[in-house]
Every structure is written in C-alpha cells, then in structure tokens.
Amino acid sequence: MREVGCPEEDLFSFLSSKRREDIGYRNILSSMCTPPHPVAARAHAMFLETNLGDPGLFPGTAALEELLVERLGTLMHLPDAGGYATSGGTESNIQAFRIAKKQKPVKSPNVVVPASSHFSFQKACDILGLEMRTVPLDGEFRMDTEALDGLVDKSTVAIVGVVGTTEYGMVDPIVRLSEVAEDRDVFLHVDAAFGGMVVPFLDRPIPFDFRLPGVDSVSVDPHKMGMSTIPAGCLLVRNPACFSSLNVDTPYLTVKRECTLAGTRPGASVAAAVAVLEYLGMDGMRAVVAGCMENARRLIEGMETLGYPRAVTPDVNVATFSCDRAPAGWRVSTTRNGHMRIVCMSHVTRDVIEQFLNDMSDTNA
Ligand code: 0PR
Hints:
Layout: H1 8-21, H2 38-46, H3 59-75, E1 82-86, H4 89-103, E2 110-114, H5 120-128, E3 131-135, H6 145-151, E4 156-162, H7 174-184, E5 187-191, E6 215-220, E7 233-237, E8 248-249, E9 257-258, H8 268-305, E10 318-321, E11 333-334, E12 340-343, H9 350-364
Parallel strand pairs: 2-3, 2-4, 4-5, 5-6
Antiparallel strand pairs: 1-7, 6-7, 8-9, 10-12, 11-12
The chain binds ligand 0PR.
C-alpha cells in the first residue's frame, strides 16, 4: 500500500483511465450479462452497505430477499418455494448438489448432467467429491434422454437439466427428466440460470419448473436476463426444509444458523433484482423477452442471407452459426464445436444487429 494516501481527484482520474480500458457493452455480443436496468442501478445505490449475512441487522433488506424468492417462486409456479439469493449460477449449482448429496448418503455418489451443462458443475463435483456422468446431446444440442436411463444408478444423487444452455440456448426435455427423476427417485436440479428469466415470458412457454412433479430445485439468475446488478442469483427449492441439511451454527450472529455458501452477502444487488421485477412486472418482462427473441430471429435470418447457416434454432435468445470470422471491433464468442455464438441480450438492440450484419457483409465483400 502507499505510505501516504492518493488525492481523491488523482485517484478518480486513475480509476477513469482503467474504466476506459473496458469494452463498452454496445459491441459485446458474447455476454449473458447486460448493463443494469436504471431502476436496478438506483436501488443498488440505496442498499450499498447492506449485508444479508447478518440479516437481523438489515430486516428491511432481508424482507426484500424474501420477496425476491416469493416472486421468482411464483414465476416458477411454486409461491411457497424455499430459496435464497446466491451470488449467481455457480453458487446455486454447488448448493443444489450439496442438498442432493446430503439427501442420499451413498459411498461413491455420482451426478448425471448433459454434455451442454455449464462448467460450474465441474467445480461443484470437484468440491463435493462427486463423479460427473455426462449424457450426450441429440442433433439439436438437447440432452438425449435415451442415453440418460443407463447412466443413472443407485449411487446417483442428482440429475441436471438445463433451461437455456450457455452455448446454444436450448431447453432440455425437462418433462422427461422429471419422469425419470420420479421413477428412479433421484433429485432433479434445473439450471435455469439464463432461461429462467426468458422461458416464462415466451408466447408458448416450454414446461420446466415446479409444475413438473420431479423437479426439486431451480436456479435462476437476475444478473443475466433479469437486468439486475451483479451479483444476483437465486436458488429455489420445492421443499424449504431441505436447506436445514446445510445449516451451520452461527452463535454470535443475529440468526443462529446459516445455510448459505457465502457468509457476508450483498443486499444491494438483491434490492436491484427486486426493483426490476416490480418495475417491469410480467408485461414489461414479456416485452423485453419478445424484443430479444425477435432480434435473435432477425440476426439468424440476416446471417443466413449472408451465407452463414444457423447451428440450430434456439429455444432462447442465443444464436449460433457456422461462421469462423467476425468483423473487427465486435466481441462474439465461439462454442466448443467451433460455432460463432451471439447472445441477444437487451443491450443488443435491433440497431446493433443491423450494424453487425452490415459489418459482416463488408467482411464478405
Ligand atoms: N448456468 C448456466 C446455464 C450459465 O450459462 C452460467 C453462466 C452459469 C450457470 C453460472 O453462472 P454464474 O457465472 O453467474 O456463476 N453463463 C455465462 C457463461 O459462462 C456467464 C457469463 C456472463 C460469461 C457474461 C461471460 C460473460 O461475459 O457464458
């Protein structure tokens, strides 16, 4: 550290120079995050110092966390769902596996996940000592449920389905997974980190949530399509009592037990998440999602006109192409199969898409 502190103006000009090195969201087509909605930013600033790790000191903020769980639980067709605000999809996935593992104490536990699952499940398996069994995908990058049955055995503590896969934006056949989970009496975790804030707002929602009897937990991230500030995730469970298996004693806090992974936890991004849901309502979210889906459709149409076929028709607003070059200045990503991947977040407006397509056609020339 410096011996003597830096004058504020100098400090902030240093910070500004670093901030200018960041790439503006306008040209970022590869991210599942987006600039926070203005009401999220405003709420975040109001709750800057709050800590949900000691909720008795911040009962108002703690009530907002409960409201978030209630709102998202209701969206997932279970108003009484248990849950808490996590730091994002990774923490939700780790915690879901912890619960599943506690529920079935076996000698060499395994979990069965689709090949498309997010890398956070690898971290979870490493931390928890779980064998990860991978189910291959079908021709449309969804879990091939034919292959699922043979991978589940007595030591399987959890099955995972993904709603809005990171790379291709697909929704796994959760109806079938729910049947298998019930038949084989296995915990079913649905990773809806991305699609949980998309699918419920589609004209024809694909069933994936607690309406399916085999679904035990769902993760959904307000800091992705929920336009909240970072970090804001949420883990929801059908049976609120299952969190008690994660409890540790916290004798000197205002609550005597804690089931969360993190100790100190931000209230600001939770207030921001609630703010967006309340401000937009179902109607507002439907409009946001309709816009993103329409932009994805237009992008696919435009790219195909330029001779770059889609890899698949996505279920949510992630578009992928057989195309190996992007015009300069744009951030796109590449899937493990080598497809160009573009996430049509709300900052990726129609104008941005048209500009991108223009630049693509110039690189073609
Ligand atoms: N589950 C799914 C389906 C995800 O897509 C992600 C992250 C996670 C879980 C983990 O969520 P957290 O990152 O909140 O822990 N998906 C994005 C990805 O890996 C995250 C991301 C966002 C990456 C913005 C880059 C970026 O610029 O692509």
